[in-house]
Specification:
- There is one protein chain.
- The chain is about 40% helix and about 10% strand.
- The two termini are about 45 Å apart.
- It is α/β, with parallel strands linked by helices.
- The longest helix is centred in the last third of the chain and has 29 residues, at about 530-555.
- Strands 6, 7, 8, 13, 14, 17, 18, 19 and 23 form a 9-stranded mixed beta sheet that branches.
């Protein structure tokens, strides 16, 4: 039992049970009868030494709450933690915004924002620190240690949560010419009430001297030494900028002639190794960068590429520093379904056929391929190749899938899309650079076909916190407006990148918190009512994004390269989605899409080339206090770890909605594919589409199920598939073939930016 308490000022006083009871009762008062505060006190007091500090006691109460592993106790811990943060971060009392910003400028963590003292006085009326008391512990902890400005060397902290949200809002509105105080309040409220989910770069860079805000980077190369060198340089420099990399390395295959046959080409593997060196040379938050290499079923080296991360591949032949994404199209899928052979081809010998893999009109590829196959002697079994790629997802964890035809059909872009990004949710054009030098030469103002690095800026709308259609519309507008500001604020690594990013204005605003919303409304991921509901949510989301971009186009002008898209002719996702997905729902739209189409045509387009992408949301959804992206929850309570901390994540309203939440492990891959197909209908980019598999005892995923999942992804119009997460009670040791005994949940690796 505690006898003495050492106060913050060093004085010692007798322990007062009444005081600690008062703290705990206050922390529990908003949670009804779902927490027992007295038991929290007893546990904490019993674990503390006879003489302890007041901070040790406060921390003990928080740990006692967290050990109970429910949402409600996490909320109780949050209230206690908020008070502790104020005590530790603001020992002399909570400063004003102006006072804090002055301090942060003086210590070099912020730049001076262009606001008069009178404006600071008005903005001070907006901030409400009491909102911290409504956040769960994991939300406050994520903001504190991941996103708040601090001197990490001196371990000096400055910002609590509301200051972080206000810093972002003020930085975003700084250059507004009218109503900027209104914009500040709008952004601040959307952030602090959990309606807009900002990406990691915005949290840590807005208001500072660091102006890197782009989330996702992807590039292509051509089959020349100079172009391949430019690709390595892009990967190196963009990793330095904290971007994850999506790579499409286009070069000839092993054994192909070089210089008229004087040299035999070494194939793609040396270039993959060079990419690993480029992304691993610099650290991102304590670890190396990450890249996903995109290859296709038609690559003659496919069997080697597929096994580059496999633990059974000899170490000297393994290239484990990359993730890989297997590309295919409907022609290949038909071969898989019929268990037929097919004919791979090299870019060196069939350059036009190679390009037609990515054509919007796949009849052109089908005709050219059929003619090529007639005389081809080098063939492989399509089903075996597909199974090899699909099996890698289970055995290595980082082998993904993309569909080259659907990516170029269900899109507003006219230019070719060769790949996705690291996390597989971005689908935008790239064009190879001819040399490293070209990266540093700004294009001519009238250059319509410069080389292009694909760049996309992200945000999320937290659908579980939307209280009205009007609020959703406003959140969509301010999400796109945030992206707009950040595209123009960004300092770009290459002049070419600045030019094309501002010309495209590509945005990817995803849905966040779907699992919480589904639980609140009582819907499931695997029945008709649930699918209907997801369709309505995805449609509503895109409706508001499209109206917001139209509004921004009228206010600020359309994207300079909007003519390089189908928007001026009135394109809508309804024009190009896979119609088989309609068999999954029976809900009738009430939105006036044809009326909106007419408005877009009249305006000659919109502000953004693309609007929507669904990212993993692993990092910043913790700072938003909600569930990840489109995914169902895995458990009601999860210990989430990164390089520096452990976060006790809890499913929102977990006790109250325990019977309503549906575990990802109980949803079949077939049902998740149907959900993603429905969402893809209303998505102009792609989805970080995870699948979930529970393997109990000696059960395994059959090859027929893998093939069926693959064919279903094509059937329902998915563009990409990200992780296959496995929960096993008897994992398989790939070295010995024997069963392991531990429970394993696949850990997701995401880049700092794409994690949102």
């Amino acid at each position: 039992m505690i006898e003495k308490i050492i106060k913050k000022n060093g004085t010692v006083e007798d322990f007062s049970p009444a005081k600690v009871n008062g703290w705990s009762e206050w922390a529990a008062k908003t949670l009804g009868g779902l927490v027992d505060w007295s038991s929290v006190v007893i546990d904490a007091v019993n674990k503390c030494p006879k003489t302890c500090t007041s901070i040790e006691l406060q921390t003990g109460l928080i740990e006692s709450c967290l050990n109970r592993k429910t949402w409600e106790y996490n909320k109780m811990a949050g209230r206690l933690y908020a008070a502790l943060i104020y005590r530790e971060v603001h020992p002399n009392g909570i400063p004003t915004i102006k006072e804090l910003h002055t301090t942060l400028v003086n210590v070099g963590l912020m730049i001076k924002l262009n606001y008069a003292d009178s404006e600071y006085d008005e903005i001070e009326k907006f901030i409400d620190h009491k909102r911290d008391l409504k956040y769960p512990h994991f939300q406050l902890n994520q903001i504190r240690f991941k996103y708040s400005l601090r001197n990490k060397v001196a371990k000096k902290e400055y910002e609590s949560a509301q200051f972080v949200f206000m810093r972002m809002a003020m930085a975003l509105a700084e250059n507004e010419k009218a109503d900027r105080l209104i914009h500040i309040k709008k952004w601040y409220d959307h952030f602090s009430f959990g309606r807009i989910n900002a990406p990691t770069p915005n949290y840590v860079n807005l208001g500072t001297a660091l102006n890197g805000f782009a989330s996702c980077c992807l590039y292509s190369t051509d089959d020349t030494a100079a172009s391949l060198a430019a690709g390595d340089h892009i990967a190196y420099m963009m990793t330095c900028s904290s971007a994850g990399i999506g790579s499409h390395i286009n070069t000839r295959s092993i054994g192909d002639p070089v210089r008229g046959g004087m040299i035999q080409h070494q194939g793609k593997l040396p270039y993959y190794r060079a990419l690993v060196g480029a992304i691993g040379a610099n650290l991102q938050n304590g670890r190396g960068g990450a890249a996903t290499v995109h290859y296709t079923a038609y690559d003659p080296e496919i069997e080697v590429i597929q096994k580059l991360r496999h633990p059974m591949t000899p170490e000297q032949k393994r290239i484990a520093g990359c993730h890989y994404s297997f590309g295919s199209n409907k022609m290949f899928a038909r071969k898989v379904a019929r268990n037929e052979d097919y004919a791979p081809f090299s870019y060196r010998t069939q350059p036009e056929l190679y390009k037609l893999q990515y054509a919007e009109d796949q009849s052109l590829f089908d005709a050219a391929y059929t003619e090529y196959e007639r005389n081809a002697t080098f063939k492989k079994n399509a089903r075996e190749i597909a199974l090899s790629a699909l099996t890698q997802a289970y055995e290595t964890g980082v082998h993904y899938v993309h569909f080259t035809d659907t990516m170029n059909q269900h899109t507003p872009f006219n230019d070719t899309i060769f790949s996705s990004n690291l996390c597989q949710e971005i689908a935008i054009p790239t064009k190879a650079f001819e040399s490293v030098e070209q990266l540093y030469k700004a294009p001519e103002a009238n250059d319509e076909t410069p080389p292009e690095i694909g760049l996309c800026s992200l945000a999320g709308v937290i659908v579980s916190n939307m209280e009205s259609d009007e609020q959703w519309a406003d959140a969509a507008y301010y999400s796109l407006k945030m992206i707009d500001v950040c595209i123009h604020k960004s300092e770009y690594t290459f002049p070419q990148l600045a030019y094309t990013a501002k010309a495209r204005m590509s945005a990817g605003v995803g849905i966040i918190g779907l699992a919480h919303l589904m639980a609140k409304k009582g819907y499931r991921y695997d029945d008709q009512e649930g699918r209907n509901f997801v369709n309505t949510i995805a449609e509503t989301h895109y409706w508001h994004l499209l109206n917001a971009s139209l509004r921004l186009g009228k206010e600020l002008g359309n994207a300079p390269w909007i003519h390089k898209t189908k928007w001026p002719s009135g394109w809508l996702p309804l024009d190009t989605y896979e119609k088989k997905v309609d068999s999954l729902t029976d809900v009738v739209s009430t939105r006036d899409w044809e009326g909106l189409r007419k408005e877009i045509i009249a305006n000659k387009g919109i502000r953004n080339s693309v609007l929507c992408a669904h990212m993993p949301g692993e990092s910043s959804t913790q700072a938003a206090g909600t569930t990840n992206s489109l995914y169902p929850i895995r458990e009601l309570y999860i210990m989430k770890t990164n390089d520096s901390q452990v976060n006790h994540w809890a499913a929102p309203d977990g006790t109250k909605l325990k019977s309503k939440y549906q575990s990802a492990w109980d949803i079949s891959t077939t049902d998740m594919i149907k959900i993603y197909g429905i969402v893809q209908k209303w998505t102009d980019q792609a989805i970080s589409a995870d699948l979930f598999v529970k393997l109990v005892g000696d059960s395994k995923v059959s090859s027929s199920q893998m093939i069926q999942d693959y064919l279903d992804m094509i059937k329902y119009g998915m563009k990409t598939r990200y992780y296959v997460n496995s929960l096993t009670s008897k994992g398989v040791d790939l070295e010995t073939g024997e069963s392991a005994v531990e429970v394993v949940e696949t850990k997701q690796e995401v880049c700092e930016s794409c994690s949102l």
